[in-house]
Design brief:
globular; 35% helix; 5 helices; 215 residues; Thiol_S-MT; methyltransferase activity; Methyltransf_11; Rossmann fold; single chain; alpha/beta; 7-stranded mixed beta sheet; transferase
Length: 215
């Protein structure tokens, strides 16, 4: 749900309004389990880490102290809040950049983190190709994303509400089959499913796991 690619890099009134509401809107979901899931996932981050669509920086407190983390975010309003949250955290550097145009050399990153980002980017395959480009051999993608439901009734509701939800959530697609898209570029090492409690039902289905680029 955070900004990810260059298409979301506007700094209009709606983007600034969304940045103000982002943390309060997610607060209940964080308290009802997502913060714990973030912490469990990010314990696996190591070496040189790049987070895409870092938003306001809700992952910042969960990274291992030994990790060298670059947090990227293209939306100016989100980025300004990210800068404030990162202050005082050694080894963390915010960079205003889009997930489809990362300022990193080929094969230079050990871990890429994507939490609630692939739902929002316009061209998921382009972003995933960029993540594969920057990852070193053996590097991993850590992901936590909401996805299209397997339950037919909920999937139909997601389809019906996809347009209104995207208008409200600044482009977030609640009906995106993210698992299938990730598998086009990455081999999934492990994956679990969960429910994003405390949030609207159209974004309840979650996937959490790790993947490596298909070579």
């Amino acid at each position: 749900m955070a900004g990810g690619d260059s298409t979301g890099a506007r700094d209009g009134l709606w983007e600034r309004f969304g940045a103000v509401l982002y943390d309060p809107f997610l607060r209940r979901g964080e308290r009802q389990g997502l913060a714990v899931r973030r912490a469990e996932l990010l314990r696996r981050a190591h070496g040189r880490v790049v987070e895409i669509g870092a938003g306001t920086g809700l992952n910042v407190e969960h990274y291992p102290e030994t990790a060298e983390v670059v947090l990227t975010e293209p939306v100016p309003a989100m980025y300004r809040r990210l800068e404030k949250r990162v202050r005082g955290h050694a080894g963390m550097r915010p960079v205003q950049a889009a997930a489809d145009a990362l300022p990193m050399a080929d094969a230079s990153v050990d871990t890429v983190v994507s939490t609630l980002v692939l739902c929002t980017v316009l061209d998921v395959d382009r972003v995933l190709a960029e993540l594969a480009r920057v990852l070193r051999p053996g590097g991993r993608l850590l992901f936590c994303e909401h996805v299209r439901a397997e339950d037919p009734k909920l999937a139909r509701r997601q389809t019906r509400l996809a347009g209104p939800w995207a208008a409200f959530a600044q482009g977030c697609r609640c009906d995106r089959d993210t698992i299938a898209l990730v598998k086009q570029r990455f081999d999934i090492e492990d994956m679990s499913t969960a429910s994003w409690r405390g949030m609207p039902s159209v974004v309840h289905p979650l996937i959490i796991g790790t993947a490596t680029p298909t070579r």
